[in-house]
Design a protein that fits this description.
mainly beta, 4-stranded mixed β-sheet, 53% strand
Length: 163
């Protein structure tokens, strides 16, 4: 099971055969995790792919041992998806318009949409472009971004249109 930096991780180790009780040991655990009895637990402090060597000894005489290598992937929790475009540049009637859209967090790729874009403007990729064909004023609109895991964020804007 994968881990996430700063979040509680717990994995029980299971052995069978031999003579219980079992004694576990591990090398290569990520910082923040420890092995107590038969449970790896804690909160990993760094991201990466870690190779862990687990060893279990039984209570028989002579001792039976088994060793196994595991790979544990610890990732960083993605930031919450937010729209980071601070404001929309003013548009001018019948003049080509282009506005780059930016988002942070979430998981790329991003997909943009809008409610309320004035006639003549459209979203393609991560930009609004076209020529406004309606006269002056401020047009209210909502921009929405959806990330690769279907999380969404939206933000309200006023687009000023100069004559």
């Amino acid at each position: 099971q994968p881990g996430v930096v700063g979040q509680t991780y717990q994995k029980e180790l299971i052995a069978s055969g031999g003579l219980a009780p079992y004694l576990w040991s591990a090398t290569g655990l990520p910082a923040g995790l420890q092995l107590e009895s038969s449970i790896i637990s804690g909160k990993p402090t760094g991201a990466g792919t870690f190779t862990i060597i687990l060893k279990v000894n039984d209570s028989a005489t002579p001792v039976n041992s088994k060793q196994q290598q595991l790979t544990l992937k610890v990732s960083v929790q993605p930031q919450i998806l937010t729209i980071s475009t601070p404001a929309l540049a003013a548009a001018t009637l019948s003049v080509p318009y282009s506005q780059q859209l930016t988002a942070t967090g979430g998981v790329e790729p991003y997909q943009w949409s809008s409610d309320g874009l004035p006639i003549g403007l459209s979203i393609s990729g991560n930009s609004i472009s076209g020529q406004v064909s309606v006269s002056g004023g401020s047009v209210p609109l909502t921009l929405r971004v959806t990330d690769g895991k279907q999380a969404t964020a939206s933000q309200f804007y006023l687009l000023d249109i100069n004559p």
